[in-house]
Design a protein that fits this description.
Elements lengths: L35 H9 L4 E2 L2 H6 L13 E4 L3 H14 L3 E4 L14 E4 L7 E4 L4 E4 L5 H9 L3 E2 L12 H7 L12 H4 E7 L5 E3 L5 H8 L1 H15 L2 H10 L12 H4 L3 H9 L8 E8 L1 E2 L3 E9 L2 H13 L4 E5 L1 H6 L18 E9 L2 H16 L18 H12 L1 H7 L6 E8 L5 H14 L5 E5 L4 E8 L4 H21 L11 H4 L3 H20 L54 H13 L5 H16 L6 H5 L6 H12 L2 H12 L1 H18 L1 H14 L30 E4 L2 H5 L11 H11 L4 E2 L11 H6 L2 H18 L7 E3 L2 H10 L6 H7 L4 E3 H9 L9 E6 L3 H6 L2 H11 E5 L13 H4 L1 H7 L1 H8 L5 E4 L2 H11 L5 E2 H8 L4
Helix pairs in contact: 7-8, 8-20, 12-17, 17-18, 21-22, 25-31, 29-41, 31-33, 34-36, 36-41
């Protein structure tokens, strides 16, 4: 063990007074048992088998109220791996469940035996026929696919609220639809073809012309059975009529029986059956979607009504006017949404009975939109909306920012309401559909039922399609609460089916929560057909047992998860997974959700538990060390949970008092530290990469990998010893070169002014001269200490920085321009909690401006562009996401290059100051997809706005020469 390696004791939580009933038992502490572990390692290789108890626990939770701990997790890379796992399961009598994003709301992505991760290695999109179709791998998120399709003026039909995280494989497997898909734009209607792996191992590409011939050869009994079942259904006129009627409204409960009516061959039937099958009939290896036009002309309004019934009654008129979406949010939803950034604070004062409709019209052109707006105005004139608080306008708008804010509030329904639930309660999310004409009655009945069972629930939904969602919170550790929930579900299901002839699942798929009620909705005859489908396609029952079909009437009460109280910053988490795609460590160790899931399991355990010991032993590296600390998870989380801040706090907890004192001492002596660092970098140029890599490697083993950086060949040479001389007189801003730009120079081989020289030159050229204070050496934005959790050092440097900046800027009269985005964020926001009260007052008078914003808003309008390059690729930094200045980065880049590309997979590089040198594997994993896009073609310029991020991207791309966009701007405006 390295000399200063911290023990896990500092992260041990206080043991629960009463261990949770659903805690992982002691016998599971060793992880995957033998021979299962050995068998799968031999079959697939060690890198594809996750077996530690920490791995099993982090995969045991998803966005649902259920929790099942798998025996093993397999990271399948290709169809061969899937087939091998199927064959193994057949031979050993085991079960297999697929998991992609884990955003499903009813436990269908959880299993108790072999769980197969089909997200990590299954991403990608190929645009076909000019965008009319798209071939999409099942691990690709809806958001990612639509980003590519948007360049062709197209988008996918399904648009679930979880598009930021959910994957296309899951969307098809659950027939998820969303706000606008309804019954005409969902997966069943827009899926052109699918490549699937049957439980037998047979691979079927439904697009192949000879697919039926091949399937008949490989699976004659299956083909004959499917055709026989088709004939049986079609011979029963009453059953045919029932099937057609059930799909007139949204319905994802059970297998898609109309596949037998719409398909004429076994392959066509299989294509239909796979939609909504929830991984119980086969694996979806590839999808081909028919895409839809991206109607870019939009108008929307958020209309407030006094009651839910009044809002529901207004829905048909907007449907008739051609609204693309009519979304409903009740009072509880609206009030909870104030947790979402940008939502008006006065919504918290809305009366409980208030209900809002988000009505949106989309059109291909201006004329069509005007027509919709006129129709909407006529509808609105006949209604009586209310304005209970000042922010309510009840008016239609075309403003994209306002409309985006409305949708942000609506899409945050589950997470915002769930995040405000009582501590320790489990969240149930249900959705159902009724004929749209009966929506108002269904709303009233639902509210009465919830009140009678003691639930103060929230309701929202796709009102245009008669589809409502509601949330219930209860304590799964309390039998009385579980019984109350069970009683509610029994009555709710009967109400929906018997009174409204509705769908118990409209778009979230059957799942564990509704499987016991399948026969209640469909009746014994249709349910028997569904059991027959399962027997035909999966005769050995290896795939996802009890997810769609379950004969246990209490199956929905099995596996309900408790939610132990964790640190306050993370306690609101409902484990939705929206944070995961943005997390740099997603494909390396753990995600924000998984970090919280693991913490909760520790708190389920009794004192002295072996399970807790094993979890803590892995948590240091898997959760704390490999968190980039970039807090992009906070941006993705609808309720702003900052898991990065939690990990920084854990780093602080692991520090010894001596380490904290040393860190604070270095902050006080940072002038010496800075000069020493620059000299060391200069000396490194003469020593050579190979020797430095060897020396730092030895030191890391001896001391601690998280303390000693590893030398990387892409680390640039030293900056110039002196900053450019600038007169104070006449300066319109104070320019603060960040310490990284005072220590490190430009990329290898770069010929041109340094970044400080470029900023000074281009500012003067624009008639906006800047002044560099002579005493900037020894100051820092404090991010060095902040990111590592050294609180005392953070306080020392934060106070010094603000006091200096206040003096430089003449008490805030001049703006402070900062040339590294992370440093801008640090000075503008992150230092504030660590300042003394007096310095907080000084900070409030400062105007901190990122150099990219300075260039876009102050310099570009005053500059003449003289030279442009052909192409540039941009790496927007995570700090820019927090600051909201990505648009300015692109604006400056577009002035310098005729083509500007931001890779669709661009994200946090995870270099995070020096974390990419402490754990280079983190940066390599975080940038893998972005780097693949960058290196797939040449660019004339590689641009960003933060020196260490540029170093990280150089490491990822083999030294492409990333540099600041301000250096490119200086070159573009330089006179010949």
């Amino acid at each position: 063990m390295p000399l200063l390696e911290p023990g896990p004791r500092a992260l041990r939580p206080t043991a629960a007074a009463n261990p949770a009933p659903d805690r992982v038992p002691e016998l599971r502490a060793s992880g995957t048992p033998e021979p299962l572990r050995g068998d799968l390692v031999a079959l697939l290789g060690p890198d594809k088998v996750l077996h530690k108890i920490s791995d099993l626990v982090r995969y045991a939770s998803d966005a649902s109220p259920y929790r099942f701990v798998p025996q093993v997790v397999v990271l399948a890379e290709d169809i061969d791996d899937i087939s091998a796992v199927f064959s193994y399961a057949h031979g050993k009598g085991r079960n297999v469940v697929f998991r992609a994003a884990g955003t499903s709301l009813n436990g269908q992505a959880q299993g108790e035996d072999i769980l197969v991760d089909v997200r990590r290695h299954w991403a990608g999109i190929d645009v076909l026929d000019g965008g009319a179709r798209a071939r999409i791998a099942p691990g690709t998120t809806v958001l990612r696919a639509n980003a590519t399709l948007a360049r062709h003026g197209r988008l996918l039909g399904p648009d679930p609220a979880s598009a930021i995280a959910c994957t296309l494989g899951g969307v098809v497997a659950n027939n998820a639809s969303g706000m606008t898909a309804g019954t005409a734009r969902n997966s069943y209607r827009t899926l052109s073809s699918v490549t699937l792996v049957l439980p037998s191992g047979t691979i079927v590409d439904t697009a192949e012309p000879d697919a039926d011939t091949e399937l008949a050869h490989a699976e004659p009994a299956l083909c004959a059975a499917l055709l026989a079942l088709k004939a049986q259904i079609e011979a029963d006129a009453e059953l045919v009529a029932r099937i057609r009627a059930k799909y007139e409204i949204k319905n994802t409960n059970g297998y898609r029986l109309d596949a037998f009516l719409d398909g004429t061959t076994p392959v066509e039937i299989l294509r239909g059956l796979m939609v909504g099958s929830e991984g119980t009939l086969g694996f979806i290896a590839e999808t081909v979607f028919d895409t839809l036009p991206l109607d870019r002309h939009t108008a929307a309004a958020l209309l407030f009504f006094p009651t839910l019934r009044a809002a529901a009654a207004a829905v048909p008129a907007f449907n008739e006017a051609g609204a693309r979406a009519v979304e409903l949010m009740d009072g509880n939803t609206l009030r909870a949404s104030v947790r979402v950034a940008g939502v008006p604070a006065d919504w918290a004062a809305l009366p409980k009975e208030t209900t809002a409709l988000l009505v949106e019209f989309r059109a291909p052109d201006e004329a069509a939109l005007r027509g919709y707006e006129e129709a909407a105005a006529r509808v609105l004139a006949g209604l009586e909306p209310v304005a209970p608080v000042a922010s309510v306008s009840n008016a239609f708008t075309r403003d994209a920012g306002t409309i985006g804010g409305y949708w942000k509030a609506r899409k945050a329904f589950v997470t915002a309401v769930g995040g405000s639930r009582p501590t320790g309660t489990t969240l149930i999310t249900e959705d159902f559909a009724v004929p749209p004409s009966r929506l108002a009655d269904a709303c009233a009945a639902l509210l009465e039922l919830q009140a009678r069972h003691g639930f103060d629930a929230a309701v929202a939904g796709h009102a245009a399609h008669g589809n409502l969602h509601f949330l219930l919170a209860f304590d799964a550790a309390k039998p009385a609460d579980v019984a109350r929930y069970a009683s509610f579900m029994e009555e709710f299901c009967r109400l929906t089916v018997q009174r409204f002839d509705g769908s118990l699942k409209a778009e979230h798929a059957t799942g564990r929560n509704i499987a016991p009620f399948l026969e209640l909705e469909w009746g014994p005859q249709a349910t028997a057909v569904m059991w027959r489908i399962k027997e035909i396609i999966d005769p050995h029952g290896i795939l996802a047992p009890r997810v769609v079909l379950d004969r246990d009437p209490n199956g929905h009460l099995r596996g309900l998860k408790t939610i132990p109280e964790v640190e306050a910053i993370a306690d609101p988490c409902i484990e939705c997974g929206f944070c995961e795609p943005t997390c740099p460590s997603e494909d390396l160790t753990t995600t924000p959700r998984q970090r919280i899931v693991l913490r909760r399991e520790m708190l389920r355990q009794p004192s002295g538990s072996r399970v807790e010991d094993e979890l803590l032993a892995s948590y240091g590296y898997d959760a704390v060390d490999t968190c980039a600390g970039d807090s992009t998870c906070k941006i993705a989380c609808p309720v702003g949970i900052d898991t990065g801040a939690l990990m920084r706090d854990f780093r602080h907890r692991r520090h010894s008092p001596r380490e904290e004192r040393v860190a604070a001492h270095l902050a006080r002596r940072f002038t010496v530290v800075e000069r020493s660092a620059r000299l060391a970098v200069a000396a490194a140029d003469r020593i050579g990469d190979r020797l430095l890599t060897s020396l730092t490697g030895v030191a890391r083993k001896a001391v601690r990998p998280d303390l000693v950086p590893e030398w990387l060949p892409q680390i640039p040479g030293a900056a110039a010893r002196r900053l450019p001389a600038t007169p104070k007189t006449g300066a319109v801003a104070v320019y603060y070169p960040a310490c990284v730009n005072r220590i490190f120079g430009g990329p290898a081989g770069y010929r041109g002014p340094s970044l400080p020289e470029a900023v000074v030159t281009v500012s003067r050229r624009a008639g906006r001269p800047v002044w560099i204070p002579p005493d900037v050496t020894g100051t820092c934005c404090a991010t060095i200490w902040h990111s590592k959790g050294y609180d005392e050092g953070n306080r020392v440097m934060a106070d010094r920085m603000v006091e200096a900046a206040w003096g430089w800027t003449a008490g805030g009269r001049l703006p402070l321009v900062v040339d590294a985005s992370s440093c801008t964020l640090g000075i503008a926001e992150e230092v504030v909690p660590y300042l003394t009260p007096d310095n907080r007052a000084l900070h409030a008078e400062l105007t901190v401006v990122d150099s990219v914003v300075w260039a876009a808003e102050e310099l570009l309008p005053r500059l003449e562009i003289l030279h442009t390059v052909g192409s540039a690729v941009l790496h927007p930094t995570c700090s820019m996401q927090h600051l909201g200045d990505e648009a300015q980065l692109r604006e400056v880049a577009e002035a310098c290059a005729r083509e500007v590309v931001v890779p669709d997979d661009a994200g946090c590089c995870a270099f995070a100051g020096d974390r990419g040198m402490l754990h280079k594997e983190l940066t390599e994993s975080a940038t893998a997809r972005e780097a693949a896009a960058v290196t797939a073609r040449p660019f004339d310029a590689y641009l960003s706005a933060n020196r260490m991020c540029e170093v990280g991207m150089d490491h990822a791309t083999g030294g492409r020469g990333y540099h600041s966009v301000l250096m490119a701007l200086e070159r573009a405006t330089r006179p010949d």
